[in-house]
Each structure stands twice: as structure tokens, then as C-alpha cells.
């Protein structure tokens, strides 16, 4: 039995929690929501440090992220890019990983074999960008990839058994992708349950050599 901390409890996060719980793992959910009647330990971020002080989990999965909100969508062109929206993307797509990384680094020990999987996206790849658009999402997720790479280097020296990877889950039928599903072929749109299974398979197969990389739901490395 492993202890798994999942940050964010929505589409992918909730499905991953359910599958891990079904296989007997001990789940801690960190959410901004007040969650009730779930078979997991559910905590608010304010008490995360206290929780980590009593032990580092075996796995941390950060599922936080935004692509759109009720009153703001991703940009189609440069004129639509504004600082407030870019900042909102950074707050959701980058800062939760920064805060988790800072707290984990503070409380890990030299022999910690923590696996930290961070939800990024294929569209964060600069070399794979053939369509343009979605400035704030792409920029913030590209920054997230740099954070993952940097932390992998820091941890390699400090915690040589620990791994951090960025992860692309495929296109998943959640609130995040809902407005953008029209042109996605049915077989390429995963249910949250399918996406959770793929994620857990990739997690299982991760090795130290993967640290700092961006991998997709098939376990293939996506070049930055
Ligand atoms: N769905 C896809 O097709 C797809 C494709 C590629 C990558 N991804 C990535 O996969 C991850 C999970 O996405 P999803 O599809 O499960 O989306 P989702 O159902 O919309 O869930 C997003 C999660 O992010 C949390 N969140 C949003 N803003 C936050 C903030 N400022 N601070 C902390 N938490 C915040 C939400 O928390 P609340 O519940 O408290 O609002 C929610 O738990 C995201 O990083 C997304 O970029 C998804």
C-alpha cells in the first residue's frame, strides 16, 4: 500500500483518486473545495505543510490547471493576450507545483524515492507547436515544463532517488476540455476513467531517467 497525495479534485484528479483507492492505496486529497463524504483524507492547502511534516507520501500527483474560466477563454490571437489572464494561468498552471515543490523539498530526506507527477499538456511543447493560439495556456505550461526540468536537476543532487515528470494525459472529457471537443475524434477523447488508467500505467513504469521530462499517456517522451 502506498500513500498518494493528489492536488486538485476534479475531472482527472477525482478519477485517479478513485482508482488508487480501489487498489488499496492511502489517498490524501488537497483541494480548494470543502469535500465531504469521500473515503479519502481531504485537506485544504493551508494545512499541507503540517501533513508533510508527519511523512512524505510515496507519490504526489498535481492535477491543477486551467484553460478557460466562465468569463475567459484561451486566446486566438496576440491582441487577446492580457496580463491579468496570463497571470491567472500562471497561478493555476505553475504556482501549485511551485508550492508543492517547495514544501516537499523542505521535508524530504536524502533517500526519499518520491515520484512527483505534474499534469502539463502536449501544447506546452515549443517544438510541437504547429497551430499557434492559446498563448497564456501554452506559455504557462511551457514555464511549468522548465520548473519540472529545473527541479529534476536540483533533486538529482539532493534526493538522487526522487523523480519529477510532466505529464500529458491526452484529450480527456472534463470541464477543462469541454468547449474544445468538437473536432476531437471520439476514439481520441478519453473518459476520465480511461485517462486515470493510462496515468497510473505510466506512473508505474517511471524510472529515474525520466526525471525532468514531459511524457504522454503512452509513456512516450514529448520533446520540449
Ligand atoms: N482535460 C484535458 O483534455 C487535458 C489535456 C491536457 C492537459 N490537461 C491537464 O490536466 C490537468 C487536469 O485537468 P482536468 O481535465 O482534470 O480539468 P478540471 O476538471 O477542470 O480540473 C482542474 C483542477 O484544477 C484545479 N485548479 C484550477 N485553478 C486552480 C488554482 N488557481 N489553484 C489550485 N487549483 C486550481 C481545480 O480545482 P477546483 O476543483 O478547486 O476548481 C481542479 O481540481 C490540468 O493541469 C490540465 O491542464 C488536461
Task: Please tally the β strands and state the result.
Answer: 9
Mean pLDDT: 97
Order of strands in the sheet with the most strands?
3-2-1-4-5-6-9
Tell me the name of the CATH homologous superfamily.
NAD(P)-binding Rossmann-like Domain
Helix- and strand-based class? alpha/beta
CATH class: Alpha Beta
In this entry the ligands are: NADP nicotinamide-adenine-dinucleotide phosphate
Number of helices: 6
The Cα radius of gyration reads: 17 Å
Write a short abstract of this structure.
The chain is an alpha/beta fold.
Please characterize this protein's 3D structure:
It is a single chain. β5, α5 (135-158) and β6 form a beta-alpha-beta unit. α1 packs across α6, α3 packs parallel to α5 and α4 runs parallel beside α5. The strands form two sheets. This protein has a seven-stranded parallel beta sheet with strand order 3-2-1-4-5-6-9, sandwiched between helices. A two-stranded parallel sheet has the order 7-8. It has one domain (3-216): Rossmann fold (3-Layer(aba) Sandwich). The protein is built from six helices and nine strands, in the order βαββαβααβαβββαβ. 36% of the residues lie in helices and 16% in strands. The longest helix is centred in the middle third of the chain and has 24 residues, at 135-158. The model has no long low-confidence stretch (mean pLDDT 97). It is of the alpha/beta class and 224 residues long. The protein is globular and about 50 Å long. Residues 8-13, 31-33, 63-66, 91-92, 96, 119, 121, 168-169, 171-172, 174-177 line the site of NADP nicotinamide-adenine-dinucleotide phosphate.
